[in-house]
Batch of 3 targets.
Target 1
Amino acid sequence: MIDPFGRSITYLRISVTDRCDLRCAYCMAEDMTFLPKAQILSLEELERVAGAFIALGTRKIRLTGGEPLVRREVMTLFRALGQRIGPGDGRLDELTLTTNGTQLARFAEELAAAGVRRVNVSLDTLSAEKFAAITRWGRIEKTLDGIFAAKAAGLAVKINAVALKDINEHELDTMLAWCGEHGFDLCLIETMPMGEIGEDRTDQYLPLSLVRARLKQRWTLTETDYRTGGPARYYTVAETGRRIGFITPMTHNFCESCNRVRLTCTGMLYMCLGQDDQADLRRVLRAGGTDADLREAIEEAIGRKPKGHDFVIDRHHNRPAVARHMSVTGG
Ligand code: SAM
Ligand code: SF4
């Protein structure tokens, strides 16, 4: 599938649930209300939509959320999609997930058996107290156990950390060392203004250009052209032999190489994380649409993929630029 700006769309991210067992302060409000079950696509419906995408040339699928591993029976979906990994047309190159790691100790082996090779685990701090504060009630031990279970199961682990002013900004150096020690890549993310969180976001924003400049005082960072099919810019860290990535939606426009679209757990297809235009694939599914109808709806939507996003915090009203939460669209 080629969009109007000549970009080949080969990457689908699926949010399999809006629910989560944590409440990270930059992501959710403490008293989030979750969607009624009837609005959420069943695992069979998710598999059908994924199948239509794969038939149209999608090569990579990432399951995310909310927290993907809290969805009941989610392993059925991993196993079903895992069977579609393989060489040749109409097959997947990669199936992966983004998780907070709390359930990984339980599922790491099964994920590996289903064909998952890499996992992104979100961890913003190595301090138990800060972890509890950022996630509002999480216990860091669970996530750390999950990370090491994934490593033991042979999965490549990438740690995702949101750079937060005053909260973890002076710890990122230690995290880079820790990742190097355990053989993990690290990816730093700028906060994005998505969804009401009950707090002022401008207090949390830390530009990664500043973080990178600070890290360069201690580490030898060399820019590489390594890409994982995502928006991160990667540098090798000479001292550890690992990589560090920077995702900078606020300071750098990465849209020109965007190869992805996102499906929410309610079956809405968003062509851009930072725009509101969408296509309602649930309507097609529940109106008894055939696989051909589904493919047609997807192709029509790709034809509307916008050139790029335009995140700006509406400072006047202190409102997020995009009203829906990251947990709905899938980070
Ligand atoms: N629950 C899983 C997790 O935390 O990894 C998957 C979903 S979470 C929404 C995906 C990623 O989005 C996480 O790495 C999280 O830190 C990031 N994220 C959430 N809200 C964000 C925001 N407002 N700005 C930047 N990144 C955000
Ligand atoms: Fe949950 Fe992930 Fe959002 Fe944290 S970032 S609240 S773990 S969905």
Note: The chain has one domain: 11-329.
Target 2
Amino acid sequence: MQKMNLIMPEKIKNRLKTDFMGQKIHYFTEVTSTNDVAKELATSRAEEGTVVVAEVQTCGRGRLGRGWLSPKGGIWFSVILRPEVGAKDVFKITFLTAVAVAKAIRKMFKLNAEIEWPNDVLINGKKVCGILTETSIRDETADSVIVGVGINANIDINFFPANLKNTVTTLASEVKREVNREKFLQKLLEELEIYYKMFKENKFDSILEEWKQLNRLFGANVEVVSFDEKITGQAVNVDKNGAL
Ligand code: BTN
């Protein structure tokens, strides 16, 4: 069996062209969830842009209380942000992260990555990335925001259970070779910083325009499932708050 390369944080940092995003990286071979570790670090005042990355998560979390399969070969990471915005604006960070992921995939692999509302990134209609944003609120302001990103990078597609095989993809299976996870994470952190800075400069409208360009749903018949209801209809647009 081929030996899997481990992520080398110094290889990411050596080439990283950012002011703060990823300038501190905490690397683990195994954690419960990188969001858990990032939350603890945020509580002890870790700097904005600090990244937690792990080879494996034993309790990876997805949206809506779901689990997130996180075996070796993926890119499982969380970033600590301190955006100083009201809790109602935190969703914008998930949107800008989806744009950054789709852009990084397009630039690095020339693949047609698209966004599916609210925050999944897909290639050829199959999910390659999920984003889970968790916020700690103080006095109605976001004290810290943990942006957790899971990317199916070098995972054998046969790893996924039958019910996921038709809806999930990996970078490696799309480009038909193992991808360099350090180079991709470096690129992604650079894109993330660009869009996060735009957000801080009150340019969410421009981010939303890019998000719309990358969106694959408009015009399609959709079924939106939340905790307690299921709505069916045609996806037409999102409003300025990103609501479908
Ligand atoms: C989803 O699509 O449901 C969101 C999945 C988010 C997964 C990432 S992997 C890194 C971070 N740690 C977690 O436990 N979850 C996020």
Note: The longest helix spans residues 181-200.
Target 3
Amino acid sequence: MNTQEEVGEFTQIFNALMSLMRKFIFKVLCAGPIPNHVSFIMDGNRRFAKKHNLTGLDAGHRAGFISVTYVLQYCKEIGIPYVTLYAFGVDNFKRQPEEVECVMDLMLEKVEYTINQAVSGNLNGVRVFFVGDLTSLNERLRVAAQRLMEVTEENKDLMVVVCVAYSTSHEIVHAVRESCVRKCDGTGDDPVVLQVSDVEECMYTSVVPDPDLVIRTGGGDRLSNFMTWQTSRSLLHSTATLWPELGLWHLVWAILKFQRMQDYLEKKKKLD
Ligand code: IPE
Ligand code: MG
């Protein structure tokens, strides 16, 4: 056996042990309530790149994508049915054009890779949904995002909602416009009366229930225009950990906090 084969065998054994350990931890965790929907505000990619002297405008974001794959795997193993990822906000378009282009190219690369994974049957029950002002994405990315939604639409284990070109302000304006169009009878004689439920039905994120737990990395305590309408009853867990550094223990810790706060959250829900 040469060194390369030895390393390969060691990696396989290590991965099997880690998977066994996770199974055990998640079994214990599942003795308590598990959030139905977890949202992630993924912040700190560029600081990660700076901290580790990584060069290239997309270096931190690339590291962030690796984190996404691990976190989604853990969520799926825990049995969380819905996950939302704040991938790119409307305000992020104000960044340097070179960085925006880099992030969009990276997103396209990952979306195309995920399409191939899905087509070859390696996505294991993950359904991907893109929400936001998708018209502001470039044509190739928009088409690829649409294709990924189509090829995964039958998957039922975990629904991942990727928010791109997203902000709640834009989402509300879009939903109000859309619900007006739906409610208009065409004559223009009677004023349109909107109910909250009409607007809610037209929100981009109406495909998922409201989040139970919002996890924000990078040390911020703000929602940054992310699902502000939908999170009035959610628990916000903020960690100083940068997104590419988020690991198994951070996720477990956040869920344990959610479990500890359960009585309080349930009481609040009833009082509203
Ligand atoms: C979040 O990380 C990723 C995106 C908004 C695309 P940042 O790029 O905001 O990284 P920091 O917060 O500047 O470190
Ligand atoms: Mg940031």
Note: The chain has nine helices and six strands.
